[in-house]
Amino acid sequence: MTKGDSPRFERYVAIGDSSTEGLDDPDGQGGYRGWSSRLAERIARRQGRLLHANLAVRGRTTRQIREQQLERAAAMNPDLATVFSGTNDVFQPRFDADRLGADIDLMQRTLVAGGATVLTFTLPDLTPIMPLARPLAPRIHALNDALRSVSRATGTILVDFAAHPGATDPRLWSEDRFHANSRGHALIAEALAHALGLPGSDDAWMRPLPFEAPPGPRARITAELRWIRRHVMPLMWRRPGGPPMEDFRGKQPELRPVETG
C-alpha cells in the first residue's frame, strides 16, 4: 500500500466460508459474485489492475479455514487480505470462543506479518432475521467480542456490522437467512471499501434502508413455515464441514487479474 490517503494494492487474497465465496449473489453465469469479488472489482477499476484469489470454501469452520487456507494464502504474499469466519462455528453442536479467537488471531497475525492489510467484520445478531436463532445470540456475541479483541491486537481493520441495526434488515438477506443477498453483498463491499479509505467510498452503508411496512401476521407465519421446510430441515441433514477439500479447493484458488468489464 502506498503512503497517503489513496491506498494501492497488487495482490488481494480472501479466505473464509460461503459468505466470502459469494452465496447468495448470483453472477448471471451459474456462479456467485459476492462481496469479495465486488471489492476486488472496485479496486481494480480504480487502479487499472489487481490480482485476486479467493480460497473460500462453503461450510468451513474457523479451524478448517486456518488449516486448509491460511498457508496457501500466505504463500501468495498478499498486500491485502480478508479473513471472515465464525458463522459455521456458531451452528456447531459445541462452540469454544477461546479456541475460535486463537485461530482467528493466528490467521490475522500471519497475514499481517507478511505485509498484508487485513480486513474482517462482525456478524450481526441473527434474531431479527430468524427468531428461532435466539438461543445462538450468546455465541454470536462471543464471536464478535473475540473478533474485536483480536483485531485490536493484530492491527486488523474491523467493520463492526453488529453495531449497526440496519445490518439485520431482511431486505439485505437471502431467502435462506444465512447468507446476504446481492444487495447485502454490495453493502458489505461498500463498507470494506470505506474502511480502506478508497476514493469515492463513504459511510452511506451505515444508514438504514428507507422504511417499508413489514408483512402482516399471516404472511410472516407462512414465510416462517416455508423457511423451515426449505432451509432448516435440509440443514439438519447436511453433512458437517462442507465439501471435501479434494473436491473444492476454493472459488478461485490462484491469483488472477480481476475482470472489470
Written account of the structure:
There is one protein chain. By secondary structure, the chain is of the alpha/beta class. 40% of the residues lie in helices and 11% in strands. The protein contains nine helices and six strands, in the order βααβααβααβαβααβ. The protein has a six-stranded mixed β-sheet, sandwiched between helices. Helix 2 packs across helix 8 and helix 6 packs parallel to helix 7. It is globular and about 50 Å long. About 2% of the residues have low confidence.
For the largest beta-sheet, the strand count, sense and barrel status come to: 6 strands, mixed
Strand order of the largest sheet: 5-4-3-1-2-6
Whole-number radius of gyration? 18 Å
- How much strand content do the residues show? 5-15%
Secondary-structure element sequence?
A: EHHEHHEHHEHEHHE
Give the helix level as a range of percent.
40-55%
> What's the total number of strands?
6
Oligomer: single chain
* Count of helical stretches: 9
Amino-to-carboxy terminus distance: 24 Å
Shape: globular
Mean pLDDT: 89
Secondary-structure class: alpha/beta
